[in-house]
User: Which sequence fits this backbone?
């Protein structure tokens, strides 16, 4: 600690006595924290799409798709389309309601695109002028925004020159604008984008070694989650405690009316007075944590300590999701993922506020969940349930000319599954298990002879009791037998055991692609399977084909194919909710770029790009189905082509970011150009997490370069010039060993070598530090060094001198900190590499922020923990029981305090020189 004089001791003693007396004498009701409110933002004047009130005509309509008429291209829905016949010189034209200027057009090509086309305009529809010719190197699934700057026109036509493939042209939306899109202010680099946010001028928050994470009650889990993440990268203790937060603390609060009256809502405020995250629920507080992670420098995601300023610029946020269900579907049946890999999937998705993990546990190629053997009385057919994983846990997809390697085999024990469920819950995700039936059932038929009967498919080979394992990606070739009692005995047992180990309210029964099941048999089985789900007190989910049956109340339809009135009618008929997973907008095994070797192209007729996954509105996807019927959206990773986590992640990301924002952010807030900038800013974070992501063209991806592997030779202090090249901004004060200083005026966003030289000029400590965009970087004062004058130097990665400054370390005379009688409430971290601090250390060195500590005053600065303050867990009644509240003692304490302050007024700490 700093040099302590006799006068300082007198004052400290008086302060300690007064601090002990005051709480029991002058007790005030704590003030209610003011609610966090985002100031209203100026409305944005978006231009009107003139095509919506126009009339569309076309040279042709695709013979194989007669519903793809010209008007489908101007209906404001991205799931409908105009499609031409297979001729290069096809055209689509729009007649506007009235003539006027045309600034630009926007054409969305879903699954058949033009490689080359010309945009023409006309005033009368007779004489045409070529406005612009476009040649694209990107196939279907793209959006072309073309600047025209036409002064006056009533007609605009797209005339094709060259098709991308043998198909014709397809346009899902042809948008026409008279005015340019507004230039939007830079938004926070957050994905998903918050509902409401604003930058403030209330200063910058700084997380320091002395910072605490303050929380109690239902807020503790979120606080602990954040602390465990941040300890690894900062190296700070960050104890989770109850009490009053200071300016360098992060405070979490959960309680009524803390945020918007919407599920999962939260508010967040960060400025020079601290960080405050408030929510109505624990789930909302955890959403606030995920936002806070992205507000900190990207290095917060590092698994090892990074010496950098941990700051958050002034901001206020009020946020909540658009949809309840924001899911990630993982196919473990065709190719297996281990428990650790599933946890990696959870880590990846949860940070972007995805809150549902849909696990496709069974399919033709494999069975991945263990079942216990029931008692004989409950097993009249004599089925050996353990054979499901003993036999079909060892099968997977083996043949696909476009896959990188055979599918991985394996299965989850019940303990494994429950481990995944718990880990998902700890990260804010609910597990939804899927047992696919009555089709996609070859793995079950392969393992269980009793399921093979007259109407089951495929049939066993001669002399065998079960069909062979299916290693191909063929679909629609399998089915249970609707007339076999063992079918329903089996499904009831499986669903009962699955429900018992699944705390969430949903079970998914598949129901898709049952092509070899007759219509009546399909209806019969779906009716029985859905009733079995209800009987185990769960809500049933199925793919959209199962909506043709009569579903029980509270059922959910998951749409993956189609999108017309027929699908809407199924949902409305059953009064069901819908999860939207349309393949062109959410399916991950589809290629996102033609450069990818593996993957499908059937959903989009070419790559399904990042923009195609982003540019759609769920409320406009199905006719008559608005947000009130939409449970949410889900991106689905199927296993026909993809193997292993690195390849899987590169197909999932960044497209999962698009689905995360579609499911969370208000439609009016979303804009692809803005999203692509924010997504690009996350590149460094994902790199630090070892989250492999595809580098989408047109996105400026940030990076996270590691500290140089080799340190340059440290400069000799004896050779330093008379004046430092830059002023490092180190205050002219004495510092404690271990104290934290912020240096300034450094090269921005750079790795720098910081050293403190001993009294003989030799380097005593060296460390890599990372400067921020403002040119700031931390310096830790060496601990256990003798008091005296030292020199701090900073060099760049090449060894060139950046700057130097003098540094004085104060003499330690005596520690006047009173021992804490009761430790603060603390949540300890789990298995971590950095040791937790379960209480605020009594002798922890003060952290000095030179932004506020630039004078020679001995008063503690912002971020400096006063060493004489009682621990936040101290019980004031302990002193009260000894007579500490007597009038005589109170008067003595006041006199001692005044005397100590008068004495201290004549004492100053010596200044050190730079």
Assistant:
């Amino acid at each position: 600690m700093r040099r302590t004089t006799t006068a300082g001791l007198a004052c400290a003693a008086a302060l300690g006595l007064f601090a002990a007396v005051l709480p029991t004498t002058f007790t005030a009701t704590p003030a209610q924290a003011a609610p966090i409110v985002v100031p209203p933002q100026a409305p944005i004047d978006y231009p009107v799409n003139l095509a919506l009130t126009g009339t569309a005509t076309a040279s042709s309509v695709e013979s194989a798709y007669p519903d793809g008429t010209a008007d489908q291209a101007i209906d404001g829905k991205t799931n409908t389309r105009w499609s031409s016949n297979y001729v290069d010189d096809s055209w689509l034209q729009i007649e506007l309601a009235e003539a006027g200027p045309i600034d630009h057009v926007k054409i969305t090509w879903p699954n058949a695109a033009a490689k080359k086309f010309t945009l023409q305009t006309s005033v009368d529809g007779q004489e045409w002028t070529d406005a612009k010719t476009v040649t694209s190197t990107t196939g279907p699934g793209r959006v072309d925004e073309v600047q025209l700057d036409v002064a006056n026109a009533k007609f605009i036509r797209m005339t094709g020159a060259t098709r991308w493939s043998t198909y014709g042209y397809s346009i899902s939306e042809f948008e026409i604008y008279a005015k340019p899109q507004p230039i939007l202010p830079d938004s926070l680099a957050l994905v998903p984008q918050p509902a409401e946010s604003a930058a403030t001028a209330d200063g910058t928050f700084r997380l320091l070694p002395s910072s605490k994470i303050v929380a109690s009650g239902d807020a503790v889990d979120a606080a602990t989650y954040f602390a465990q993440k941040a300890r690894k990268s900062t190296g700070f203790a960050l104890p989770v405690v109850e009490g009053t937060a200071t300016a360098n603390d992060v405070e979490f609060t959960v309680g009524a009316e803390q945020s918007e009256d919407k599920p999962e809502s939260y508010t967040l405020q960060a400025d020079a007075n601290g960080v405050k995250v408030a929510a109505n629920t624990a789930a909302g507080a955890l959403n606030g944590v995920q936002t806070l992670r992205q507000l900190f420098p990207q290095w917060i995601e590092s698994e090892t300590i990074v010496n950098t300023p941990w700051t958050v610029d002034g901001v206020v946020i009020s946020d909540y999701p658009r949809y309840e269900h924001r899911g990630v579907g993982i196919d473990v049946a065709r190719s297996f993922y281990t428990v650790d890999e599933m946890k990696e999937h959870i880590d990846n998705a949860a940070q972007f506020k995805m809150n549902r993990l849909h696990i496709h546990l069974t399919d033709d190629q494999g069975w991945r969940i263990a079942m216990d053997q029931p008692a004989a009385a409950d097993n009249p057919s004599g089925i050996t349930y353990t054979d499901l994983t003993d036999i079909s846990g060892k099968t997977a997809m083996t043949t696909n000319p476009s896959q990188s390697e055979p599918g991985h085999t394996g299965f989850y024990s019940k303990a494994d599954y429950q481990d995944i469920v718990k880990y998902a819950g700890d990260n804010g995700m609910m597990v939804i298990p899927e047992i696919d039936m009555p089709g996609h059932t070859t793995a079950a038929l392969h393992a269980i002879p009793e399921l093979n009967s007259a109407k089951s498919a495929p049939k066993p080979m001669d002399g065998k009791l079960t069909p062979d394992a299916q290693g191909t990606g063929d679909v629609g070739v399998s089915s249970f037998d609707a007339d076999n009692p063992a079918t329903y005995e089996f499904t009831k047992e499986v669903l009962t055991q699955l429900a018992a180990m699944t705390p969430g309210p949903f079970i998914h029964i598949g129901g898709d692609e049952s092509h070899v099941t007759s219509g009546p048999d399909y209806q019969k089985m779906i009716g029985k399977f859905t009733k079995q789900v209800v009987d185990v007190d769960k809500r049933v989910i199925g793919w959209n084909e199962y909506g043709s049956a009569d579903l029980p109340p509270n059922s959910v339809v998951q749409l993956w194919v189609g999108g017309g009135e027929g699908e809407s009618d199924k949902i409305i008929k059953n009064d069901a909710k819908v999860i939207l997973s349309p393949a062109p907008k959410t399916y991950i095994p589809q290629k996102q770029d033609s450069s990818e070797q593996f993957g499908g192209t059937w959903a989009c007729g070419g790559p399904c790009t990042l923009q195609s996954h982003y540019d759609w509105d769920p409320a406009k996807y199905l006719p008559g189905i608005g947000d009130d019927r939409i449970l949410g959206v889900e991106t689905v990773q199927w296993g026909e082509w993809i193997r292993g986590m690195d390849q899987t992640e590169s197909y999932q990301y960044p497209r999962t970011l698009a689905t995360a924002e579609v499911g969370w952010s208000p439609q009016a807030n979303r804009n692809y150009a803005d999203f692509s900038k924010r997504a690009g800013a996350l590149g460094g974070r994902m790199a630090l997490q070892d989250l492999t992501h595809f580098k989408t063209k047109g996105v400026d991806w940030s990076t996270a370069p590691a500290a140089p592997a080799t340190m340059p030779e440290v400069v000799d202090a004896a050779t330093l010039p008379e004046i430092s090249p830059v002023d490092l901004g180190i205050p002219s004060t004495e510092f404690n060993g271990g104290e934290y200083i912020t240096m300034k005026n450094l090269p921005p966003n750079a790795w720098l070598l910081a050293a403190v030289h001993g009294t003989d000029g030799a380097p005593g400590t060296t460390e890599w530090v990372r400067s921020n965009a403002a040119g700031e970087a931390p310096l830790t004062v060496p601990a256990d060094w003798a008091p005296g004058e030292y020199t701090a130097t900073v060099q760049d990665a090449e060894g060139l001198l950046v700057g130097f400054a003098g540094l004085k370390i104060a003499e330690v005379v005596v520690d006047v900190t009173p021992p804490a009688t009761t430790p603060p409430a603390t949540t300890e971290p789990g298995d971590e590499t950095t040791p937790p601090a379960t209480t605020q250390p009594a002798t922890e060195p003060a952290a000095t922020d030179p932004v506020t500590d630039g004078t020679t005053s001995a008063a503690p600065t912002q971020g400096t923990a006063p060493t004489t303050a009682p621990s936040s867990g101290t019980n004031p009644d302990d002193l009260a029981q000894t007579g500490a509240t007597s009038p005589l003692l109170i008067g003595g304490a006041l006199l001692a305090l005044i005397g100590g302050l008068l004495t201290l007024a004549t004492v100053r700490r010596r200044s050190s020189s730079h």
In short: Residues 1-32, 819-914 have pLDDT under 50 and may be disordered. The radius of gyration is 33 Å. The chain is about 20% helix and 20% strand. The CA atoms of residues 87 and 298 lie 50 Å apart.
